[in-house]
């Protein structure tokens, strides 16, 4: 999308290197030195903050030889909640520092990628624009006064989604502030803006200028995600009139804050660990309740990952952190943001399509998708394939792809061009067709792109069809005995499409490669063709020649599904202010469903039954999450026990937790973390017993266990009935799993506790290999 910009940045880097780095110089890189937590209370004096910075200079100075050198090397001192610093160091220096007894980890400052509105109606929070009393929106007062922050590309503060209409004064617990550089403005809705650029500038080798000194969103991603989580109601929101409706976020009456840590890509990364950590540190200080983080890198060790560390500190302060699972699917073992204190979200479809049909004179009709202008109704046009309209000097294959400089205006004028997908951007092909004077375009998938069709805003009336239909269209267009004629129907939103949801092909999948005993992703939510607020600083397609901007735009990705769940977490915050972030996650997970709108098992992108590695516990059901009955709760010590179990030693954990009294249990085990899903990656012995605790957050009642055994595994739950005499009561149970035979693949089952009214579901994932 921003490849031209990337090229400029890379060229600058090369030039910078040639001029400034002598051939013999040792290569310095930016590192993060992580030291754990600070013990200072909520009211930190500037003197205390200064002391923190000095202690960092002292520590680093003892390795570099002077305070002066340390001061020059350090570009961030994390001084509020997260203890550590980011500095430019040589590899040997970093290596030496990592051995210091107060240091938990030293890691390279790695880059990360950025990974309506009908979606709320699809999830039954509203019906025909009316909010029923059964809706979580009614019960949770639309997320009133919950504070939702995101770490992203900033915010376009002018968007109507951030209008303060009808909101009272900013909650007095808010300690954040509004950085107004670049004309960003705040109000009672958008209550905080900050930006963090130092890690980016060091990694990109750039000097700062005004475009890097503002929380303004030049990309659109941050505005889209923040408005999806917490945007206000905006009537008449559409993309050029298509998808017209009332836009809204998951917690429409929440307050929102933007932490900009992502910038134009360098080497494929937009956001760097050093900036992400700084953003987390300030968000904790400012007092957000929920953080939505739609970005990630390759799965990494917990203490070598800015998101894992930052989110741990956030969760420790009662913040719910929701992250995207990544867009590296459908390959297995690609899920990122896998720490067990994060709520990790996959992406699936809605039951809406922006349809524009190809109608041929022969009577054939193919369903396509589009967000482009309509052709004049009732008129037929002649059809021509790129290869038939080629310039004499162009190759047939390049013309078929409608590449630049290949189409002959004499042959294209007034016709509908048929172009093959691939090698240039989809919107670029439309531009070539438009420049050659075509009246419209049909974009045809090749074999590789299969059924993957996208509703794009083209420069001319256009639609996009799948591979199967493309083959039929080509043979019609090729026929020589009559003139191929056809038209495109006006793009219109169609609802109730079945099946929905199904998993998006791009959604990253389990198993979890860092800790196989924790199932990730946790849940799935809408992430395909989501309409939300956008920035006017960026053109629609992001391409250089495109000057069209829009206040609302359609985007797909786990970046879009993540803020849906953040919005729901915001509602639960308002409704149940005393719940921990683990209780909120448990409520969302145990009430999720694994069936689609045909009441059949949810499918993957090839229309084959999907499984827990695709969707975790299933698709979120917000109305049920408000009243889950029971929750699998977790405390900070449970997470520390987990870290002991995965092999961090007592010394490291003591530094990390800042609680000298905490001791690693003698027999810590990953399977015993009180997680709302159950994964035994390693059922190779005679049996494995898993312990869980359930807390009653509903009403007095008796719950019975119902197990769906994974194929080839016998499961016994003891006790199989739990009687809760009061709210808040905690009861535990044990589940024993025994392999019946050795299977080469993972097997999937489930456990449901029910009192006849609530259904508390957990997926069971087992490998006997
Ligand atoms: C900020 O707004 C003022 C007044 O509208 C305008 O003159 C100025 O150019 C703007 N600055 C930027 C950086 O957009
Ligand atoms: C800031 O620097 C970047 C990279 O060098 C450049 O692309 C951009 O145009 C500059 N912006 C301003 C406002 O100077
Ligand atoms: C969207 O719908 C509203 C109400 O139905 C209507 O007033 C408005 O003109 C429509 N906007 C567009 C761009 O079609
Ligand atoms: C880009 O990535 C390559 C390969 O990972 C690496 O060698 C190179 O140093 C990176 N360049 C920058 C500017 O980070
Ligand atoms: C073919 O020639 C035209 C000028 O007549 C030129 O604009 C175009 O770029 C050429 N195309 C190719 C593929 O060389
Ligand atoms: C697209 O470009 C790649 C690399 O230039 C080339 O290998 C491939 O054959 C092209 N595909 C088509 C359909 O022309
Ligand atoms: C998903 O990918 C498969 C190939 O892996 C392809 O056959 C299918 O058409 C894709 N589905 C969609 C909806 O794009
Ligand atoms: C259409 O004709 C072109 C040659 O003109 C040929 O390459 C292509 O395979 C034909 N496609 C179909 C589907 O018949
Ligand atoms: C869907 O699931 C089937 C069966 O597990 C698998 O073979 C296929 O690759 C999956 N498709 C996608 C796109 O994930
Ligand atoms: C704890 O782990 C760290 C990092 O692996 C190691 O340097 C240290 O020696 C270990 N301490 C003990 C007491 O084993
Ligand atoms: C699997 O189980 C064996 C024996 O219980 C243990 O040594 C090993 O560490 C386990 N592996 C994983 C990935 O849990």
From TrEMBL:
Domain Subtilisin-like protease fibronectin type-III: 672-766
Stretch forming the signal peptide: 1-25
Residue ranges of every copy of the Peptidase S8/S53 domain listed in the record: 143-596
Protein keywords: Glycoprotein, Hydrolase, Protease, Serine protease, Signal
Protein name per Swiss-Prot or TrEMBL: Subtilisin-like protease
Keyword Glycoprotein: yes
GO MF term set: serine-type endopeptidase activity
InterPro entries: PA_dom_sf (IPR046450), PA_domain (IPR003137), Peptidase_S8/S53_dom (IPR000209), Peptidase_S8/S53_dom_sf (IPR036852), Peptidase_S8_Ser-AS (IPR023828), Peptidase_S8_subtilisin-rel (IPR015500), Peptidases_S8_3 (IPR034197), S8pro/Inhibitor_I9 (IPR010259)
List of catalytic residues: 152, 221, 559
Residues of the PA domain: 398-473
Domain Inhibitor I9: 30-115
UniProt organism field: Brassica oleracea (Wild cabbage)
GO biological process, one term: proteolysis
Family: Belongs to the peptidase S8 family.
One Pfam family, short name: fn3_6
DNA damage among keywords: no
């Amino acid at each position: 999308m921003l490849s031209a910009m990337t090229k400029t940045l890379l060229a600058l880097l090369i030039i910078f290197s040639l001029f400034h780095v002598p051939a013999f110089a040792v290569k310095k890189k930016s590192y993060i030195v992580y030291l754990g937590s600070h013990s200072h209370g909520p009211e930190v004096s500037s003197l205390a903050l200064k002391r923190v910075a000095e202690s960092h200079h002292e520590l680093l100075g003892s390795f570099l030889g002077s305070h002066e050198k340390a001061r020059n090397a350090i570009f961030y001192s994390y001084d509020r909640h997260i203890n550590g610093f980011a500095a430019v160091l040589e590899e040997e220096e970093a290596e030496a520092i990592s051995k210091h007894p107060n240091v938990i980890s030293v890691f390279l400052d790695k880059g990360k990628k950025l990974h309506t509105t009908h979606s709320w109606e699809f999830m039954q929070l509203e019906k025909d624009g009316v909010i029923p009393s059964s809706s979580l929106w009614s019960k949770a007062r639309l997320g009133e006064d919950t504070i939702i922050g995101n770490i992203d590309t900033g915010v376009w503060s002018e968007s109507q989604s951030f209008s303060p209409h009808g909101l009272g004064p900013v909650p007095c617990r808010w300690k954040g502030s509004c950085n107004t550089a670049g004309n960003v403005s705040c109000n009672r809705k958008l209550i905080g803006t900050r930006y963090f650029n130092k890690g980016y500038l060091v990694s990109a080798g750039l000097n700062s200028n005004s475009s890097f000194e503002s929380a303004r969103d030049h990309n659109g991603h941050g505005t889209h995600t923040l408005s999806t989580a917490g945007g206000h109601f905006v009537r008449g929101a559409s993309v050029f009139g298509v998808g017209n409706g009332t836009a809204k976020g998951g917690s429409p009456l929440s307050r929102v804050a933007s932490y900009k840590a992502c910038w134009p890509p360098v080497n494929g990364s937009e956001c760097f660990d050093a900036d992400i950590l700084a953003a987390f540190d300030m968000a904790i200080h400012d007092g957000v309740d929920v953080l939505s983080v739609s970005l990630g890198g390759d799965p990494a060790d917990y203490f070598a990952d800015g998101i894992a560390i930052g989110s741990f500190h956030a969760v420790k302060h009662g913040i719910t952190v929701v992250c995207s699972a990544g867009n590296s699917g459908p390959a297995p073992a690609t899920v990122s943001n896998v720490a067990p204190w994060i709520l990790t979200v996959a992406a699936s479809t809605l039951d809406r399509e922006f349809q524009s049909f190809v109608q041929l004179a022969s009577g054939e009709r193919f369903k396509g998708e589009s967000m482009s202008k309509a052709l004049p109704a009732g008129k037929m046009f002649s059809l021509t394939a790129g290869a038939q309209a080629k310039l004499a000097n162009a190759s047939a294959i390049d013309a078929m792809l409608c590449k630049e400089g290949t189409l002959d205006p004499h042959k294209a004028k007034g016709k509908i061009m048929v172009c093959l997908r691939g090698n240039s951007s989809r919107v670029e092909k439309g531009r070539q067709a438009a420049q050659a004077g075509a009246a419209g375009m049909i974009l045809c998938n090749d074999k590789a792109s299969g059924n993957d069709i996208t509703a794009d805003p083209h420069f001319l009336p256009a639609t996009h069809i799948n591979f199967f239909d493309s083959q039929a269209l080509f043979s019609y267009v090729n026929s020589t005995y009559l003139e191929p004629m056809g038209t495109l129907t006006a793009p219109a939103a169609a609802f109730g499409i079945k099946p929905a949801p199904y998993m998006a092909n791009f959604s990253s999948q389990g198993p979890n490669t860092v800790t196989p005993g924790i199932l990730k992703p946790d849940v799935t939510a809408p992430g395909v063709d989501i309409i939300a607020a956008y920035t006017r600083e960026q053109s629609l397609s992001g391409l250089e020649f495109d000057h069209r901007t829009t206040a609302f735009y359609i985007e797909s990705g786990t970046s879009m599904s993540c803020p849906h769940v953040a919005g729901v977490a915001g509602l639960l915050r308002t409704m149940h202010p005393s719940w921990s972030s683990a209780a909120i996650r448990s409520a969302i997970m145990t009430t999720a469903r694994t069936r689609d709108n045909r009441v059949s098992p949810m499918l993957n992108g090839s229309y084959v039954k999907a499984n827990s590695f695709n969707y975790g516990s299933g698709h979120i059901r917000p109305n049920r999450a408000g009243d889950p009955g029971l929750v699998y709760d977790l405390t900070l010590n449970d997470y520390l026990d987990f870290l002991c179990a995965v092999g961090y030693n007592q010394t490291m954990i003591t530094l990390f937790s800042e609680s000298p009294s905490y001791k690693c249990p003698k027999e810590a085990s990953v399977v015993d973390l009180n997680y709302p899903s159950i994964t035994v990656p390693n059922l190779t012995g005679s049996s494995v017993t898993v312990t869980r605790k359930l807390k009653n957050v509903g009403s007095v009642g008796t719950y019975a266990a119902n197990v769906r055994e994974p194929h080839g595994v016998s499961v016994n739950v003891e006790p199989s009935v739990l009687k809760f005499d009061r709210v808040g009561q905690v009861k535990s149970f044990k589940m024993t799993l025994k392999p019946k035979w050795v299977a080469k693949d993972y097997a999937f089952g489930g456990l449901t506790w029910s009192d006849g009214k609530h259904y508390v579901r957990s997926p069971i994932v087992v490998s006997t290999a």
